[in-house]
TrEMBL record, chains A, B:
Pfam families: MiaE_2. InterPro entries: Ferritin-like, Ferritin-like_SF, Ferritin_actino. Residues 19-197 form the Ferritin-like domain. This is Ferritin-like fold-containing protein. It comes from Branchiibius cervicis.
């Protein structure tokens, strides 16, 4: 149990380090581009034309979020590809470790994996200037994606109870991988670290605050797993 | 060599069979949805963030085409999923037979495979009423996609001359598969067959006309392969 009360602060529009903001938008944009690829791949695996359509529409929405985030980078005078480049490797690692073997694992990656990432991105908006934070919160995907995947997963688990065990295991693996990737992402460069972690500047999360953030990700994940009747 | 002159006719807006048009729009829409998944998957395999971006943008454009075609179906009072359903199996077969093993094979599937399909769809618009035909021709992807994939393939072939042989072989396999799939698609149901093939109604291609269509697909394919320095 965490006893100390952690803090997070954004020092206001003027002093939030711009290079860090560009880096963070780079993480978010690249995350969305990868989520787009991911959801499209799961859509391709879907067993019916209707589920291919529904997931295809979700994938297209992830792309629209990516475009909004890239647009914001261009407004700041930053080439999106440059801002995204440093995250190529950590994201590739995550996707290589969590490659869905079939349609149900694909749904699980959308329902649980992408949701952890979105929760993380939402938390990170706390360190941004209010205007960028509002724009990012607005852009990030809503819960419709989770709802769609949850419905399909609940049906599948009901029809095949051995599936529950396999998916519970996958959920635990995803949470573990996500926590280590989240820390790798935060450490990618000094600009980003200065934005996210308060190392005496009054900007970002202090260590306890960051631990609490990770704990909140875990709690939300546990609730999502419970909504499927699975132990986290 | 084809000596007879084949014909194709659309009997005009009033008498083009509506059920056939819905079927044809179903083929086109499902083809685009699958192309969207395909390009997204190739984008995911792309080696650099920039090529992931470029191919991601192409994938999103395929989705936009799919949406236009679905919209047209809805206008006609047809549920897109229902119009697409009969093509689930033939399309699955094509994609299962031509699954790119790596980034270069993926580019080849976009450059040569998707292009054969688009050529075929363009030819089929000849049997539609003029208004629907114009809308479909407008919606179908332009050559930008081919140009992007061609540039990347030419670079890769230049760097690795063993690649040329492997891609030439893949191109031949794709053409063969495409021709048999095209015929399977045309045969999927009577409505579609009545629209596409003139069986005494004066609507559609006569047999010679359809053979000539397939020959034109082959010629265009040969030219695309030649543009890569490959034999078809």
């Amino acid at each position: 149990m965490i006893e100390h009360s952690g803090t997070v602060a954004s020092a206001g529009t003027s002093s939030v380090p711009e290079a860090g903001v560009a880096s963070l938008l780079g993480v978010l944009a690249y995350g969305e581009l990868m989520a787009f690829f991911d959801v499209a791949r799961v859509a391709e695996m879907a067993p019916t034309v209707r589920s291919q359509q529904e997931l295809g529409a979700l994938a297209a929405r992830e792309y629209a979020v990516y475009e909004q985030l890239s647009g914001r980078l261009r407004q700041m005078g930053v080439e999106p590809a440059e801002a995204m480049q440093p995250f190529h490797e950590p994201f590739d690692n995550w996707h290589a470790r969590i490659t869905p073997a079939d349609w149900h694992e694909g749904l699980m990656k959308i329902y649980a994996g992408a949701a952890i990432a979105t929760d993380f991105y939402r938390e990170l908006t706390d360190v941004l200037d209010p205007q960028t934070a509002a724009m990012v919160r607005e852009a990030l995907p809503d819960d419709e994606q989770a709802a769609l995947a949850r419905t399909a997963l609940l049906e599948a688990i009901e029809q095949d109870d051995r599936l529950a065990g396999r998916l519970a295991l996958l959920g635990r693996r995803m949470m573990g991988e996500a926590l280590s990737q989240a820390q790798l992402v935060a450490l990618v460069n000094d600009d980003l670290l200065d934005l996210i972690m308060d190392r005496g500047t009054g900007q970002g999360f202090d260590l306890v605050g960051f631990q609490q953030l990770l704990a909140r990700l875990g709690e939300k994940h546990t609730r999502r797993m419970a909504a499927l009747g699975l132990d986290a």
